[in-house]
């Protein structure tokens, strides 16, 4: 594969993840935003441990999906920044581990704990109670990212996601 073809393949994979993130968020709008949320697109955070390109795919997808957020530009900035940080941290920490289940466990823990940023945003902008919102958003994040870890683990048995 030539360098140009490799670059096109990388961009295509990144764009596909971004598009999938947008579709999974917008298709379930009532569940994707607010103090109680199950954003199914967060399942894709697990992709970050396989290749850094997926960090960008998920982050760009989040930016675009947040166009539909009732918090508008604030969510586009802070929600997207949170996604970038948590997927990058997941990738960074997982690089020290060999076991795929351990790496996926890192994603679950990092993403669940990082739910504080969404809770803070909802608290500051929407007057939602911080701790209760942290709990409800954290439960949603834990649930969707754990489901995504199972799906990603099964998918990786059939397809090498690092390529």
From TrEMBL:
InterPro entries: QueT. The chain crosses the membrane at residues 15-33, 54-70, 76-93, 100-119, 131-155. Keywords: Membrane, Transmembrane, Transmembrane helix. Coiled coil: none annotated. It holds the Pfam family QueT. The keyword Transmembrane helix applies. PANTHER family: INTEGRAL MEMBRANE PROTEIN (PTHR40044:SF1), INTEGRAL MEMBRANE PROTEIN-RELATED (PTHR40044). This is Membrane protein. The lineage of its organism: Bacteria, Bacillati, Bacillota, Bacilli, Lactobacillales.
């Amino acid at each position: 594969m030539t360098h140009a073809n490799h670059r096109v393949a990388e961009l295509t994979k990144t764009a596909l993840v971004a598009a999938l993130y947008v579709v999974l968020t917008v298709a379930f709008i009532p569940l994707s935003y607010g103090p109680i949320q199950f954003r199914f697109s967060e399942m894709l955070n697990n992709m970050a441990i396989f290749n850094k390109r997926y960090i960008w795919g998920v982050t760009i997808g989040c930016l675009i999906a947040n166009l539909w957020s009732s918090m508008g530009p604030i969510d586009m900035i802070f929600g997207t920044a949170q996604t970038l940080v948590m997927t990058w941290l997941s990738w960074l920490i997982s690089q020290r581990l060999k076991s795929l289940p351990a790496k996926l466990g890192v994603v679950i823990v990092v993403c669940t704990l990082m739910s504080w940023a969404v809770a803070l945003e909802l608290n500051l902008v929407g007057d939602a109670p911080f701790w209760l919102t942290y709990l409800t958003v954290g439960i949603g994040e834990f649930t969707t990212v754990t489901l995504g870890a199972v799906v990603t683990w099964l998918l990786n048995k059939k397809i090498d996601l690092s390529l």
